[in-house]
Design brief:
Blueprint: H1 2-40, H2 53-60, H3 69-72, E1 76-79, E2 83-86, E3 92-93, E4 98-100, E5 106-107, E6 120-127, H4 129-144, H5 149-153, E7 163-168, H6 178-188, E8 195-200, H7 202-213, H8 223-233, H9 237-261, H10 266-298, H11 319-342, E9 347-352, H12 366-369, H13 379-390, H14 393-398, E10 403-405, H15 427-454
Helix pairs in contact: 1-10, 6-11, 7-11, 7-13, 8-10, 9-10, 11-13
């Protein structure tokens, strides 16, 4: 009898524990469902797209998540004219058709792209990673049928019936005069354009500042990209070790994202999201440490024996002198692009991109403030360099350059617009920028149309 009561007591306790566990699980699932809805504005179980935002954001910048160290660890290659480009075959998006093309740029097409009919309207996008994001996001939105830049352009009367072709000539870290040189090169080999969009500003000041600190010519490509390739050519083992560490983190991040995307329950998704966020933060931290290591190692390189020739400057320039030189080059590069295109009756639109390190009237929420690191290596360049760039805008406008200052376009937006501590925007920020650029193009095209009618 005692044994029976003991057994009954154990069953009762087991039942209570089981019920509590079930109730706890249900509670966690309900909380997770609420959290998911607050973030995505849709129910977890009825969501249509299981591709995580983290994967989309990484792939838009050309970062393919893979496990093959030999093929995936070094994503760029030196280019004799452009400085550097992406390694071919490291990225492909089947849905949109975007891949690394024959020139190491993200595109649906090989270059030069030749029109197949007169109804095609070809837009070339130049600049750094923000411009790259802009072009790639436009193509992806078009492919999946979402409202995006191409749809905004079709609201312009002159473009409503056109087949709009977006060609990306932008890449991470590109800065003037790379845009100018690339434009000249592609025009010389027969690339056709109806319009050119140049989105820049950040790289010119942030990355040129780093060049200056390492006594590398300000107008050469970013040392963050050139020096690692140069050091690898010199068999620098410390650089290779850092690349191996980053590759391991990238593989772990890939595994975490795969598990996140396979979750069937909201609780699983919430838990995996936290894991992925932690891995992503570590990955981005290692990238920053890697950049700093490259800068430290650069002073040890015997450039007289290097296979890559990099112009040196005798001493680090004072910030005021350096930023004035950068701004003058930026001014002349944009002016020359505009003149070259005007001679061919091609529209040119130049946009100075927003950045969180340039102070405006924007009020940042606590959630967005994590993307502002006060002692970030980019901060000095932006805070000191942007005012000098912006001081050149009036002169460019007087020279009939269609240039637009977008640094304030996020000021009235309450939701988060940035997605990292560098310069990149989330989908909300992308949408605001796309609309602004489309509206700016509309204004110029309408003005040009009015002027054409007056001259008839």
């Amino acid at each position: 009898m005692k044994n029976w009561k003991l057994i009954q007591g154990i069953k009762t306790e087991f039942s209570l524990v089981s019920i509590n566990l079930i109730l706890a699980f249900i509670g966690l699932e309900v909380v997770s469902l609420g959290f998911y809805y607050s973030q995505e504005k849709q129910l977890f179980y009825t969501r249509k797209d299981t591709i995580s935002q983290v994967r989309e954001d990484l792939e838009k910048t050309g970062t393919r998540l893979g496990t093959d160290l030999n093929n995936e660890s070094i994503l760029e290659r030196l280019h004799p004219f452009f400085g550097y480009v992406l390694k071919q075959e490291i990225f492909a998006n089947e849905e949109s058709g975007i891949r690394v093309n024959n020139y190491g740029l993200l595109s649906k097409y090989d270059y030069p792209f030749i029109k197949s009919n007169n109804n095609q309207f070809v837009i070339g996008v130049f600049g750094g990673s923000v411009a790259n994001d802009f072009a790639v996001n436009s193509l992806i939105s078009e492919a999946i049928g979402n409202q995006g830049f191409i749809q905004y352009l079709k609201q312009i009367p002159q473009l409503k019936d056109k087949e709009i072709i977006i060609l990306c000539f932008a890449g991470g870290g590109y800065k003037q005069p790379q845009q100018l040189l690339m434009l000249n090169y592609f025009i010389s080999i027969g690339q056709e354009f109806d319009a050119v969009i140049n989105i820049d500003g950040f790289n010119e000041v942030a990355l040129s500042h780093q060049n200056n600190q390492e006594r590398i010519e300000l107008f050469l490509p970013s040392i963050q990209h050139i020096l690692p390739l140069t050091q690898l050519a010199s068999d620098d083992l410390s650089v290779m070790a850092a690349i191996v560490q980053i590759s391991k983190l990238k593989n772990n991040l890939s595994t975490g994202i795969n598990k996140l995307e396979s979750c069937k329950l909201a609780f699983c998704y919430g838990w995996r999201s936290l894991q992925v966020k932690g891995l992503l933060n570590r990955y981005q931290t290692e990238i920053i440490k890697y950049d700093e290591q490259i800068a430290r190692n650069s002073s040890k390189i015997d450039r007289s024996n290097s296979l890559v020739y990099l112009n040196k400057i005798s001493e680090v320039l004072e910030d005021k002198v350096a930023f004035e030189k950068v701004a003058k080059n930026w001014y002349e590069s944009s002016l020359t692009m505009s003149q070259i295109l005007a001679d061919r009756n091609i529209l040119y639109f130049h946009f100075v991109q927003p950045n969180q390190y340039h102070p405006t009237e924007r009020i940042y929420s606590p959630e967005e403030k994590i993307f502002i690191i006060e002692d970030h290596s980019y901060a000095v360049g932006v805070r000191k360099g942007y005012p000098v760039l912006l001081s050149k805008i009036n002169s460019l406008q007087e020279a009939k350059v269609n240039i637009f200052n977008t640094v304030n376009i996020f000021d009235g937006e309450k939701e988060i617009v940035y997605r990292d501590a560098c310069c990149h925007y989330n989908m909300n920020g992308q949408t605001i920028l796309e609309r602004y650029i489309a509206n700016s193009i509309k204004t110029i095209m309408e003005k040009k149309d009015i002027n054409s009618r007056k001259n008839i």
